[in-house]
Specification:
globular, homodimer, 114 residues, 17% strand, alpha+beta, 3-stranded antiparallel β-sheet, 3 strands, Arc Repressor Mutant, subunit A, 54% helix, DNA-binding
Chain lengths: 114, 114
DNA sequence: ATCAATACATTGTATTTCTATGTATTTACA
DNA sequence: TGTAAATACATAGAAATACAATGTATTGAT
């Protein structure tokens, strides 16, 4: 894991973006997906993820439906229309910020296309 | 200016990196340089920058020397050896984090080489 | 049977940057 | 010459965020 502070400000964008891509996901699944996609470098903690999901829900950007797998509950979260709009805005902002940072700090570095 | 939260975790890296590039700078100069290099998109506030400089100094990563321009004082900050080391570490961390984010969220986007 | 993994949750803490406010000097220009 | 804008520093308090620690409970593997 990197310097923890770096994640600040990007967590909700990551969540919104993944839900936009994948349709619906539950918390644990989201954390696993981020872990996998980041090559184990971004490890979302429960204490970050669940409060973030609750806040996004409270703000009307997410909804969820419960599914029971035996006795265990899963809350599948998905974007509301407002969430879809927000996802686009935040993605653009983050992309622009990253472009700016790259040009300021790493003008010669070539971020790999994988 | 972007979402304010995005800057979190990157401010000290920006300061260290610019000082590594430029040798020595004073606070106001740093803020202007960031404003210029970011095309007016990153506007460091006094309330962010000066406390950050004080903290980096307290932590032994920066030193400063005062210069008087008439009666007005300027504090020229520069990296200590520890600061130089830290700059390298933080730059690498930030670069790696940005690579990861890019691959996760914007795999098809081509961050321009300018 | 037991341990690891799955799946949810909350409280309190630490850190960070910003807002607001302040002092004072220098420069531009009307 | 007077005034506004820019220069240059500073601090106190507020707001936001992610984390650490802790908790409950179920399921799957051995």
């Amino acid at each position: 894991m990197y310097n923890k502070e770096l994640l600040k400000g990007t967590l909700t964008t990551i969540v919104l973006k993944l839900l936009a891509k994948e349709g619906k996901m539950y918390g644990y699944e989201l954390a696993q997906k981020v872990k996998e996609m980041s090559d184990e470098k971004i490890l979302l903690k429960d204490g970050s993820l669940y409060p973030a999901l609750h806040k996004l829900t409270k703000d009307g950007l997410l909804q969820f439906e419960e599914q029971y797998i035996g006795k265990r509950v899963r809350k599948y979260y998905y974007l509301t229309p407002a969430g879809t709009e927000r996802e686009q805005v935040e993605s653009e902002q983050l992309k622009a910020f990253m472009s700016t940072l790259k040009n300021m700090l790493f003008p010669d570095f070539n971020f790999q296309l994988q």
